[in-house]
Design brief:
This protein is an alpha/beta fold and 211 residues long. Helix content is 40%, strand content 27%. It is elongated and about 105 Å long.
Length: 211
């Protein structure tokens, strides 16, 4: 014969089990309802993709120390700062590609940000581009006065070729001022974009358009 206290314990356990089952069923139903609601609220339209545009990159050539004008086609956002960053990221991709005329190791986010600021009140149409380089890019850049200078000038030239309102360029590394790029090119000064134009640039007229 089963003792009375065991019957009571059994009944209590049964009641608890049934109650937990009911609670779990309700929680599952609520979760399902929230999931369906989230699906209803989710956007069914595809995000906007920037259309491909023609752009000009001033690509450094280590063989003769010049900047070569190269036409490319790439998606470019409307915002000028984001546009500048996209252009420079493409320039860095060229430098990291096999057989590049100016070899720089590939790193993620070589160009962290590009900020555009007014040069001064006396020059309301001119802009200063503050290019924030990634630390891994600067740390892995080949050392040498010519190779570092060509990288800096190619950045300035590319900005000027596509955003002519940019007349001056300053460089940061990981958001702070760094003395040099890789031991030689001065990053504490302000560069004029006209310096890139006067650095002995060439035009690759027969090179076609790089996709």
């Amino acid at each position: 014969m089963i003792p009375r206290y065991q019957k009571i314990v059994f009944l209590l356990l049964l009641v608890v089990s049934i109650s937990m089952g009911v609670v779990l069923v309700r929680l599952r139903e609520r979760a399902h309802d929230r999931l369906l609601k989230g699906e209803d609220l989710a956007s069914t339209t595809a995000p906007d993709v920037a259309p491909a545009e023609q752009a000009t990159l001033m690509v450094a050539n280590d063989m003769d120390g010049t900047l070569v004008s190269e036409a490319v086609s790439l998606p470019l956002p409307k915002d000028s700062g984001a546009r500048a960053r996209a252009l420079l990221e493409r320039l860095m991709e060229i430098y990291a590609s096999p057989g590049a005329m100016h070899e720089v190791p590939a790193v993620p986010r070589a160009i962290e940000q590009v900020f555009l600021l007014p040069v001064s009140e006396s020059k309301p149409n001119g802009q200063l581009a503050v290019v924030n380089l990634g630390g891994s890019f600067a740390d892995g850049h080949p050392s040498g006065i010519e190779t570092e200078t060509l990288t800096v000038l190619s950045i300035c030239g590319t900005l000027q070729a596509n955003l002519p309102q940019i007349t001056e360029v300053r460089f940061l590394v990981n958001g702070t001022v760094r003395k040099t790029l890789a031991g030689h090119a001065d990053l504490t000064r302000t560069y004029l974009t006209t310096e890139a134009v006067g650095s002995g640039s060439a035009t690759s007229g027969d090179a076609g358009t790089r996709p």
